[in-house]
Write a structure and sequence with these properties.
The chain is α+β, with helices and mostly antiparallel strands. The protein is 26% helix and 27% strand. The chain has five helices and ten strands. The chain has a ten-stranded mixed β-sheet, with helices on one face. The N and C termini lie far apart (45 Å).
């Protein structure tokens, strides 16, 4: 067989241009529509290559990407009371915060006080709108995701994504509407 380095495997075999992918976060800590560092343990090399966008743009990028037919790499907190491995769902229980109060301030409070952390990254591979609310189909390759009847899959409610997911990475065309406003 042919020998590959990680870089030649990426360029020669997978044929992926890493410059075609963009990372986004949503925090009130920084100005919107600018690149900043994602402050969390997995970003140990302190990359400041994350576009900080409003929460509405963050959600819009996710929904536009799915409508475009792209999956989304998404990272955030999976150690929450509303995260149920046995039920294969992630929701925000009312005892935490009722849905109508989930906004940028509620999100920022949890980012700032450390109650939202980056535990795990997964892929959003689909969605379904139920009663005007999005439910996202999550592909989770972690060993704990294979304990339910839908091996390797979970369903995240849009409130959970809004409140507990810290960052996303998408293909450039899937994030085009927001990128065109930011990159001039």
């Amino acid at each position: 067989g042919k020998e590959y380095t990680p870089k030649t495997w990426l360029s020669d075999y997978l044929n992926i241009n890493i410059n075609d992918y963009f990372s986004f976060m949503s925090t009130m800590q920084y100005s919107y529509n600018e690149k900043h560092e994602l402050v969390e343990d997995d970003n140990w090399f302190h990359s400041d290559d994350y576009y900080n966008v409003s929460l509405s743009d963050f959600m819009s990028i996710i929904n536009n990407a799915l409508q475009f037919g792209a999956s989304i790499c998404i990272c955030g907190d999976v150690s929450e009371p509303g995260y149920s491995a046995s039920e294969e769902v992630a929701i925000v229980p009312d005892f935490d915060i009722p849905s109508k109060y989930i906004n940028e301030s509620a999100r920022q409070k949890r980012l700032s006080d450390g109650s939202t952390t980056d535990d795990h990254c997964v892929h959003i591979v689909g969605y379904q709108k139920v009663n005007s609310e999005y439910w996202y189909l999550i592909k989770d390759s972690g060993s704990g995701a294979f304990d339910g009847k839908n091996k390797g899959y979970r369903f995240y409610h849009e409130d959970y994504v809004k409140l507990k997911m810290m960052n996303i990475m998408v293909y450039k065309e899937a994030g085009r509407k927001v990128l065109d406003r930011i990159i001039k």
